[in-house]
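Tutorial handout. Part one gives the primary structure; part two gives the three-dimensional structure as tokens.
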Amino acid sequence: MKLRIHGNALRLRLNQAEVAQFSKTGCFEDSIEFSPGVHLTYALESSSSIRSPRAIYGNGSLRIQIPYQTGLEWATSDKTGISGGDDLAITIEKDFQCLHGEGAHDPGAYPNPLEKATASKME
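Part two.
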């Protein structure tokens, strides 16, 4: 899962395996270790008690929560993203293959719907 923080906005991008786990368990978690014993854990969670995406932070843990039904529909359909939040803009997306750059291929990412259009223009 990729976490992007820019200004007052958070973006999560999940590959196919991560979305599959989220659809089964209602949660996917990852972390980054900055130094021994110092890390940030971040998670995407579904919750049946909320109506819009929200972020909760405390003790080195960032939890992005989305409504249960919204998360289920996103994970099990062709829908590519969810956005919302009040004071903090929150976006959750399926991670697509990059179309540019050497080594940009990520086997776990979703096939990019623009790949065929780009290939056709190059022919």
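Part three, for discussion. The mean pLDDT is 88. DSSP finds three helices and eight strands in the chain.
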